[in-house]
Structures are given as structure tokens and as C-alpha cells.
User: Fold this.
Amino acid sequence: MTGSAVVAGCEWLEYDYGPALVPQDRPASFTMWRYRDLLPVPDGPVRYPLPIGGTPLLPAPALRQETGTPRLWIKDETRNPTTSNKDRATALVIEDGLRRGIDTITTASTGNAAVSTAFGAAAAGLRAVIFVSLGCRPEKIAMMTQAGAWVFQVPAGYAAATDLSRDAAQAFGWLDRNTGANPVTLEAKKTVAFEVWEQLGRVIPDVVVAPVGDGPTLVALDKGFDELVRCGLAPRRPRLVGVQAEHCQPLVRAWLGTPAGPAELDPAATAADGIAVLRPAIGDAVLDAVRRDDGAMVAVSEDSLAAAVGTLARRAGVGAEPAGAAALAGLEIAVAQGMVDRSETVVLLVTGRGKAAAGPADPHRVAVVESLDEVERVLAGGMDR
Assistant:
């Protein structure tokens, strides 16, 4: 790493770019750490214990036939340890923390990033302190506590949970895994772009379609493809199509030039809780990435999300939660509106699969809080490592 730059208000770490930073061999299997020369990872063995990345790029012939898109591919991120792409960011943040001797990690989440953080911390021997809204799905809270995490529910919602988590990280010296706030999270997620490029035979696809909540997944794709260009390994970046749920589409509305008021956005009204974010952490960077390469933003209905979940299972053998299936729902709209041609090489990013807990949450590991003082009192009252 040689420094950093600010792109659309978002910090991008930079490197001394060149083709030698990407390995030349083509292994049958690999992990995210294959790209460590383009990650902020100093020399020495990787200490994070779970295998991350190297997820398959699936041709899904039956889905190609049903959708009439013969060059369609599915990047199946559900193959990560906690069945979501969030594991990439968790792994790199914890790897950084292990090297610096930090013993606690925190994040705010609508669910998947929190589950990933809880399990990643458990594997690495760290304490996880998670902040969620009161509306976070009970099965996800149960999984967090079963992995040993401490969970704080924040009545004012996800944005307030994010603020409280970030304040706690600063006040107590914890690792801050909050998406979009820690630039390391982008660095990890950009490896999806490197993998897609390699898995397509070192060829850039025409279009990548991805769900968008806070925004780092799409922005990281943009950064990854941009770094391949800067390394002299690719001639261009693909067009990016971001997908949001109709009930919570702040970035689609901004892209269309008709910003939505708070009363028009209802995160609780969509089944796609993983992308139901009222205040996207790096929304400006998302819009910049989409505009730079003639991409698009689209909103999808609840019916189309449900249909996409079923189609992925039935025609591709891929299990996905509604947020994870949003890319397929978005592709249908993008094709119908002329944003994507059916003959193009298109990659759908399936970001996560539904989760089932083995039982209820541990009530001793869950508390409702509204301030840092309350967090500190609960911690002092019995939260151990």
C-alpha cells in the first residue's frame, strides 16, 4: 500500500500498481488472500482462521435458457463461511486487529454483517459487540448470540446503531468493522472483482449487477475493476447496475434526480432487509461509480424479489435470501428498460443466503440501549471476553 485517495467522499487505499501484483498461475481453488499484494496485509502468515473468498462463478445453463441470456454468470457469495459476502470484510478487519493486538470488534448491521462479525470473531478468539435496530430479524440475533457476541438493540434504528457502534469503537479502542467507515472493508470486497475477472479467463464482463444497501459492495466492485485497469491487466471497467427494493430506494431516487423524502421510504416494508438502508453510508460513491461507466440504478418490487429467490433455487440451484436475489430481479428490469442487452456477458452477484438459528437468542447477551453510558454499564456488569 502506498497511500490513499478520496473518491466521491470515500477513502480508497492505493498501491504501486503493476501486473506483478496479481499472481499469474490459475489455481483450481484459492482464497481471498491470493490477492494480498493488493490488500493492506503486511508480510507474514495470515492469522485469520476461516477460508474466505474463492467462491464459484456459475454458468447456470437452465437459468440462462429461462432468461434468454446465454452469457449470464452467477457469482455465488453464499459459499462463504456465514453464507454472505460480508465475510470478506470481516476477515480483513479481524486480520488487521490480530496483528495490532486488539481484542474486541464492533459493527452495526441489518443482520448479515453482524452474523459474519460474530462468527469471525469467535473463530479468531475476539469479542464481538454488535449494534442492531429493534427490527433486526430474531433468527439473526439468535445466531449472533450463539456465536458468543453481545448484541445491543438501538430503538432509533439502523442509522443510530451505526453511530453508536462507531462512537463505541472510538471511545473503547475497538476494531471498527462498520461498512463504508473503515476503508479496509472496501479492500476486502474488491477481491470479488479480481475473482470474476480470473474466472472468466482474465476477461472483464460487460455488466455486473449487484444489490445495494449501504453501498460498499458496488463501490468495491468498481475499485477492484479499476485496479485491474491500473495494473495494466484489463482495458476497461464493466457497467455496474445497482439494485434496491422499491420500499427503500434512496439511491435509485437520487440517481433519477427525484430524491425521496423519509415518509416515502419504509425499510420494514421489504423482505430484503439486507439492503433496506435509509441512510447509505457511501451513497455518493455508489452514484459516482454507476455514472462513470454508464451504469444504472433500478428498484424492484417485493413480488419480483420473491420470484427471484424461487428462480435462483429452481433454475440455478442457488439458495438466496431476498436481498441476495435482488440482482436477478434487477436484471429483468434492466433488460426490459434497455440498460442491458441479453447478448452481453452479465454477472449477477448473489450476496447472501437465508439463515436459520438452532434456537432462540441468549437473553443474557442482548440489551436495549440508547447511549454509550448504557453500553458501558452493560459491559461492566458482566460482559466477558
Q: What stands out?
A: The mean pLDDT is 94. The two ends are 32 Å apart (CA to CA). The first strand starts at residue 3 and ends at 7.
